[in-house]
């Protein structure tokens, strides 16, 4: 039917309406998701007072069934994992089983809870278009989480043991730092998206690569009100200073996201490492945590790619016109806002 | 148009999924035993025993081993008990007790006892109802962590025991299927979330429950 027109460069009015609807439902969906995270984050500290829980959420809403399934699988893997660790305590040849299980645990773990996926995906909405970069970021964040867990457990085990600083304290400190960084990063991202808009009086201007697409109808024939500038073109035709340094800035932003997310080690990794170190299974613990990170990275990559593809599709449906530019700016601002909100919610929960 | 809509809604679904409510899974597993102490026709106390998994137990060992002898001695165990005691207060000690559907208030346990045997942490405590619970109709007892951090498992029905069950009463252990529970309680779940931060309602839906049912004139 209209499939072809969706991909064409000059979408008709109906498609633009679709795009508008699409964008509206996109925002509504994300707003609901953000709202749902609020009560959830209130539970971020562990109910036993020992160890750290992940920001959690009851299985409600349209994805309850899927999440329940993910949860059941996670529990199964976690139990298998703890079984493999115990087996390794007695028989070192169980290492490969442990690594395989850790990898699977990582894949499922990232599909369930976790702030990393939400932050990286929101960031991708706000700022990125290249899929490849999304994948690199996901892997970097997961790797950083693994290193953070290993360093933390190592320090606790070798240096802090017996002191007044417990693993729970140290993890909470890293958690708060990580969430504060995420909030700060979101604020900065938002400023970068909104700043130019405010300073230049409503001109939309995106820094991301999505702008590489063509604008064949800049010399178009649609009407402008008297005095209105070529708003639908939406972008500076002369390269502006921000634009030229855009790529470098984006990489800096990307690595800030990685650092902010990766600083907080995941609870499962900490528990596995503590047990391994206690039983002198040094290699096993470290290998298991890296396998977990690889699994996590794959899931987060897939989710981040969805974010990019959804954004891309919304933009293509919208076309390159005024609506397109607005939707583009809207999506980016919303993504930045989402990072900020997530950061603030998580921070409030970890301080509360 | 239809195709576009379908595609668009598919994308929205995918997007929603990625920012959809994160749902934590337990990081701690405990095998539990509950003894309901009945005196005459009243419930007097609930006795709990939780045996934690090796991994969590080793975390506890590392955290509380102040003198670095890789053992938890009496003082260190007391500290463990103190931390758990304090934290559980917020969650009614994971207990959900109802008499004919109505919530029954429980007292905070006077003390928690922590022990460490075979590399496993054990927590013991006794909790009394604010007023003795008369055994009339159906009285139900569940143990559940509403934050999903701890999975409390009663591996056998016998591990939810009743001492001195009066004649005319019967006991039954109910294990809700989580998937069914979610499907049946979709609306309540969402509501529970916004109105019930302690998660009491959630526990009622998911917890393995011991029901004691007595005849009205039994």
TrEMBL record, chain B:
Signal peptide (residue range): 1-24
Keywords in alphabetical order: Signal
One of the Pfam families matching this protein, by short name: DUF1007
Highest taxon above the source species: Bacteria
Record-linked InterPro entries: DUF1007, UCP008159_ABC
Listed name of the protein: DUF1007 family protein
Organism for this UniProt entry: Chelativorans petroleitrophicus
